[in-house]
Write a structure and sequence with these properties.
alpha/beta; seven-stranded mixed beta sheet; 13 helices; six-stranded mixed beta sheet; globular; 417 residues; 2 domains; Rossmann fold
């Protein structure tokens, strides 16, 4: 059956995850983010942070780095933050099929506006000792807040750390009610996660005619041992596209280094290939990765970034650390169109050793800098992307690639002269 224009233009459901702080929202988000590709591999899904803080997934993948990473990741609100976040949700709803929004744990006019941009909600709340606190800050209080903005309930979840069973059932109104054990892995929360996935996938999900791309999303987590050399089993397809002379579009839920591997395997075949990254959060979701960057004297005003070299404490090599200078740690709308005018460090490329791109910036910024570094070094140096979860540099091109190299958090090191 052919998709009608009306169906294709229908907004996708956006499900807000709400509840008080320290209630396991990030834990549940991590479970859903990891499980959805396996349950619905063809579904275009995106997780939108509803706060400048991000979604907290660095705590799931690198809990030992919590104290070190949080100051560099946490952002603050500015006059433009709300417009940027709501714009991301609306763009996702136009271009994708399912959106999950991580709403902050505090009631505020900003969060109320973000909630209005959503269609459904899931409450995740710990149990309060005080009946008054439970009524205002617990499940009942958050349910009242959501329904005041005409957002439909999907699930009400009580989170626990110990001494409770995981379960889920449907109440008299048709809403899923269950318990989460935030101290246990996803496998031991399956009695909640599986029916919650069923509820998400039963929503009215519109068809989408997005441009063809290589979907880097996989039903299983990306692994250095299994996926580095084959780009998750997609190297042959990437090679074929590059040989054909056609553009290469990359998308899907995958680590930044997976995108980097795909880009550089294509560049191995065709150095001038047009490569696009699909990012539904921006107005123009197919973002072309520039072949090179312009002079550092003319960075784009929308790209509120600072790029600087930070010497590796391991000896040779350096990190190209990219820092968001806006207080809310978000790039404003339109930044993706100015990618060729990214700021370039004032000092020259360090003379020896691997060069590793790091920083909390969009995937397409990482790709642009890694492609530029490859060109600057004529492919003779190992170029990598830092992976916070493993504290390693994933080497994408050059003499020692593909591979990994132990690489401490670059932002914690003194700036190179």
């Amino acid at each position: 059956m052919r998709t009608t224009l009306k169906e294709a233009n229908r907004l996708a459901p956006a499900v807000a995850i709400v509840g008080p702080p320290n209630s396991g929202k990030s834990r549940l988000l991590g479970f859903l983010n990891d499980a959805l590709p396996g349950r619905a591999p063809g579904l275009s899904v995106y997780l939108v942070p509803g706060n400048p803080d991000g979604v907290g997934k660095y705590l799931t993948h690198a809990p030992r780095l919590r104290s070190e990473l949080k100051p560099s990741i946490k952002g603050s609100w500015t006059p433009d933050t709300l417009e940027t976040l709501i714009g991301s949700i609306r763009s996702c709803r136009r271009h994708l099929q399912l959106i999950v929004v991580d709403l902050g744990g505090k009631r505020s006019p900003e969060n109320a506006a973000i909630l209005k941009a959503c269609s459904h909600y899931i409450v995740v709340s710990r149990e309060f000792q005080s009946a008054i606190s439970e009524a205002t800050d617990g499940i009942a209080g958050w349910r009242k807040e959501c329904e005041a903005h005409d957002v439909e309930p999907l699930a009400l979840i009580r989170s626990h750390i110990a001494n409770h069973d995981v379960h889920a059932a449907t109440d008299a109104t048709g809403v899923l009610v269950g318990t989460l054990r935030s101290d246990l892995p996803v496998e031991q929360n399956a009695q909640l996660v599986e029916p919650l996935l069923d509820r998400l996938l039963a929503l009215e999900i519109p068809p989408r005619a997005i441009p063809p791309y290589i979907n880097l999303g996989k039903p299983h987590p990306w692994s250095f041992d299994k996926d580095l050399r084959t780009v998750g089993g997609m190297a042959t397809r990437i090679h074929e596209v590059a040989l054909s002379g056609r553009p290469l579009s990359l998308g899907g839920l995958a680590p930044i280094w997976a995108y980097g591997l795909a880009l550089h395997r294509a560049l191995d075949v065709a150095g001038d290939i047009a490569v696009y990254a699909f990012d539904p959060k921006v107005e123009h979701p197919l973002i072309r990765i520039p072949q090179t960057l312009v002079a550092s004297e003319s960075p784009a005003p929308t790209l509120d970034l600072r790029a600087r070299w930070i010497a590796s404490p391991l000896g040779d090599g350096a990190s190209l650390f990219v820092d968001l200078t806006r207080p809310d740690r978000l790039l404003p709308p339109g930044s993706e169109q100015d990618l060729a005018r990214l700021p370039i460090p004032a000092t020259a490329v360090p003379p020896v050793g691997p060069l590793v791109v790091s920083g909390r910036v969009p995937i397409w910024v990482h790709l642009a800098y890694s492609r530029w570094l490859r060109l600057q070094t004529n492919g003779e140096r190992s170029i990598g992307i830092w992976d916070a979860g493993s504290e390693q540099a994933v080497l994408l091109c050059g003499p020692t690639s593909p591979g990994t190299l132990p690489w401490p958090a670059s932002h914690a090191q003194p700036q190179a002269e």
